[in-house]
Amino acid sequence: MIQVEGLTKDYGARRAIDDIKFHAEKGEIVGFLGPNGAGKTTTMRILAGYMPATSGKAVVAGYDVMEDSIEVRRRVGYLPESVPLYTDMTVLDYLKYMGDLHGVANSIERAEDVLQQVDLSDRAETYIEYLSKGMRQRVGLAQALLHEPEVLILDEPTIGLDPAQIREVRALIQHIGKERTVLLSTHILAEAQTMCDRVLIINKGKIVAEDTAKNLEARLTTGGGRLSLRVKSKAKSLIPTLKALKGITDVELAQDGALLIETKPGVEVRPEVARTVIAENCDLLELRQHGMTLEEIFLELTAEPTTEG
Predict the structure, then answer these.
(1) Is-contact 151 72, C-beta < 8 A?
(2) What is the overall mean pLDDT for the chain?
(3) Looking at the domain assignment, is residue 303 inside a domain?
(4) What pTM was estimated for this model as a whole?
(5) Same domain as 47, residue 183
(6) DSSP H or E stretch at residue 231
(7) Which of 120, 123, 147, 305 is least surrounded by Cβ atoms within 10 Å, i.e. has the fewest?
(8) Structurally, how many domains does the chain consist of?
(9) Do 206 and 232 sit in the same domain of this protein?
(10) Is 152's pLDDT higher than 60?
């Protein structure tokens, strides 16, 4: 449903995105991650038909974004980070108006349907200027759904929402994503890890990773294992003894008091670690194996190289 090849966008002398390539299929939710200024919003605006690329090709729902922009817009629901709303209209009037612009049949009925989806039916007759930021965000999501698009492009869809609303919007997006293609950007890495089938990570205008979070973890950890060990007391005194165990490459004391243990690939050290803790007369509280979080993967791939001088 989305196919991007060699997409490039220049703002004068500054290159915002540089020869990027990726795809997203029907029934797939793809997370778009990157630092501020990395090129996420520029890419989404191009795919939604809101601005042209400098070069490259982008096909959305079977139509070329550059050559068939109108057809693309008919098939894309776009939620920008700053939702453009007419604050002097009621919620229902605004959605009816947007539905009419999209050529939606029975626009009032459709507006009422999407208001129910985003849990704003009780605000239908409220003027938008009196809505909270979170409610305005949900109105923006409702207008993106109005014309039942094949592709949804959502720029920070949960920004400004409270925790309960975030859960509701996440569930809605996951439901929508079963039958449509969803490309969403977010700064909440746990959100991407929970919701998305795959993630794209962009940095300085280039795609630096494209895969599932699980596969990215496997690629970055190079096969080694990681353990988290918690004891009741004397954690620091265990470090030299644990480092001496076969298969352990490093042990560090974390700020929260846990011991972080790095192991060689394919080596099971947990039984020996447990026996060592008991032999040292320490009370073992937790011994857990874990991988890299999406946040750690993100930081690894977007970190600035250090220079010595």
Answers:
(1) no
(2) 89
(3) no
(4) 0.75
(5) yes
(6) strand 225-231
(7) 305
(8) 2
(9) no
(10) yes
